[in-house]
Every structure is written in structure tokens, then in C-alpha cells.
Design brief:
Elements lengths: L5 E5 L4 H12 L3 E6 L18 E5 L8 H6 L3 E4 L6 H6 L1 H22 L2 E7 L26 H22 L3 E6 L2 E2 L10 H10 L4 E4 L5 E3 L1 E2 H11 L10 E5 L4 E3 H12 L5 E4 L1 H4 L15 H7 L7 H12 L3
Parallel strand pairs: 1-2, 1-4, 2-3, 4-5, 5-6, 6-11, 7-10, 8-13
Antiparallel strand pairs: 9-12
Helix pairs in contact: 4-5, 6-8, 6-11, 8-11
Bound molecules: nicotinamide-adenine-dinucleotide.
Nicotinamide-adenine-dinucleotide binds next to helix 1, strand 2, helix 4 and strand 5.
Amino acid sequence: MNTGKTYLITGGAGFIGSHLAEQLLQQGHRVTVIDDLSTGSEKNLSKILGRPAFTFIVSRVSACPELEKLVARTDVIFHLAAAVGVKLIIEKPLYSIRNNLLETACILELACKYKKTFLLTSTSEVYGKSPSHSFNEADDLRIGNPHLSRWSYACSKLMDEFMAMASWREHGTPVVITRLFNIVGPRQTGRYGMVLPRFVQAALENKPLTVYGDGTQSRCFCHISDSLKALMQLTKGEPPLGVGDVFNIGTDSEISIADLARKVITLTGSKSEIEFIPYEKAYAPGFQDMMRRKPCLKKLLARTGFKPETALDQIILDIAQSLSPR
Ligand SMILES: NC(=O)c1ccc[n+]([C@@H]2O[C@H](COP(=O)([O-])OP(=O)(O)OC[C@H]3O[C@@H](n4cnc5c(N)ncnc54)[C@H](O)[C@@H]3O)[C@@H](O)[C@H]2O)c1
């Protein structure tokens, strides 16, 4: 008898979703992915396409004709589909806002109707310009004004959180809200502004690594394999371990972007130089970045026992290996 569960992953042909789908299949579960391939790719699923326990549907979430049937027979929904990446958000703000709000509303309504566990992947961006050194889930949030498109990602994701929380409070939908902090690893693309794959790719080609601003801004990079453990753990149990609550997911080990660039060059044995360019040149006049973005992981640790394990050097080597020509 197959004791595996049934999972639905929206955005499952993307970076995080494709790794999640592989892991769940490996654990003996059945997985359906819905993805419109806007930033994801079928290539990300090449290891699992054709497996009997795996179904891939190319569609926008809201346009998927089988959506209601799929939700009705699923145990857990991982809702990852979203417009992702600062570059994309700035270039296509209206599309991004609509995508992040309307698609979430659509699938959340079905999760509510069938009382299915619904995990939302929100973002550290919701902390906005908070001056805190370690972002805590209970912190107040400080987002910039609507003249600056970059904040529309944070706002739309925050509204997703509010919708999910309201569905839990009003209707008892078993929702779990996660705020992801710079999750990195093989398959993440640098095309939409993600810094680490962009650096590693440039280093492998001995091209300049472009650092925006003076490079003293810092980030915390968490390996995909670590973050998957946290995501899966939070949906386990009846009711799920993370139900009705918000959790940071990431690592609290910090590095400045300039040091990150140096590390990438050293570890890949590259001849690349580092080039510093002003934010206004990279994005738009008035672009606002946060100097630090470090998660407080106490709540996640207390609830799940999760601790990130993969060191940054290993993460960089992993990405470099995945991008190297075979
Ligand atoms: N990677 C990170 O560090 C990070 C940080 C914070 C939050 N997140 C969140 O995690 C989730 C996954 O991000 P990722 O890094 O894997 O990005 P990704 O771009 O690789 O994945 C998003 C996927 O969603 C798909 N998609 C977008 N809109 C869709 C729609 N309407 N219908 C169907 N498919 C759609 C895209 O084609 C893509 O495959 C996103 O919700 C993102 O906001 C990621």
C-alpha cells in the first residue's frame, strides 16, 4: 500500500519548486506541478519528468482548468508561483503585482473550500526598511512608498500573507506562512537580478563581477537543501506544525556583497575583477536597498528543530559545479 501523500506545487518548474518536487518524489509522495514557465523552465524538471508519480501542467495557476479537482484531491499545497526578482519587478510592476495577488487569491480560495494545508512562500522583503539587525516575525514592517516600484514585490507578498492569515482566522484554512531569506543553489538563474548565480557565472567566464553601491550591504545565503527541510517540516503533522503562523527561513550567517564577490573569485580560481556601479545605474534613480537582511531563526528552531548546515563556501562550489560546462 502506498502511504505517500499528494502534493500540489505551484511554480514548481522554478528554482525552489523543482528541488522541492524532486525531494517529495524521492520520499515516495505524488506530486503535481503547475507552472506557466514565465521564469521557470521545463529543464529544471528533467530528472523527474515521466515518473509515474509526477504530473506537470503548463498553465497559469488561475487558468488551469483542472485546478479545483487537483486541490480537492491534494493533501498539501506549496504555493510558490509568483513574479520573483528585483529586476523583473522593476521592469514589469503591474504584471508582478497582479500575478502575486490574484493567483494567490485564486488558489487560496480553493484551499479554503477544501480545507487543505496551504504553505505560502513570502519573502524577507516584507521587512522593508526596518532598522532591526535581526528580523523577527513579530516586528513592525516599514515599506517604501508607491513611487518606487521595487516595494510592490514586498507589498504584494505582504498582502498574500494577510489573505492567508485571514483565511485561517475566518475559515480555519490550515495555512503556513514562510518568509524566505536569499535561498540559493543550483538552478537559480541570475537573469532576474539574483546576486549569487550572477557572480558565479561571471567568475566562471572571467568577466567582471558587478557590485551595486559600495558593496558594504550584507546578506545571508541559505542553501536550497537546508531550506527545503524547513519548508517540509512546517507542513508535517495534523494540524501542520506551522499552522496559522509566520516563520523566517534562511541562515543567520552574514556576508557583505563585496566580500561575497571576493570569495566567489577565490573559490572559482577566476581572473575576474570587481566593478562597483551606482544603484541608479543598475536600477532606477532613487532605488532603495537595505544594508542588512538577517533573519531571527529562534521561532523556526523552537518549532521544527531546524538549523541551516551548509557553509557558504560549499554553496558557492555547488553553484559553480552546476554552471560549469560538462
Ligand atoms: N529564492 C529566494 O531566495 C526567495 C526569497 C524570497 C521568496 N521567494 C519566494 O519563493 C518562491 C519561489 O521562488 P524561486 O526563487 O524558486 O523563483 P522562480 O522564479 O524560479 O520560481 C517561480 C516560479 O513560478 C512560476 N510562475 C510565476 N507566476 C506563475 C503563475 N501565475 N502561474 C504558474 N506559474 C507561475 C514561474 O514560471 C517560476 O517557475 C516565490 O514565491 C518567491 O517569491 C524566494
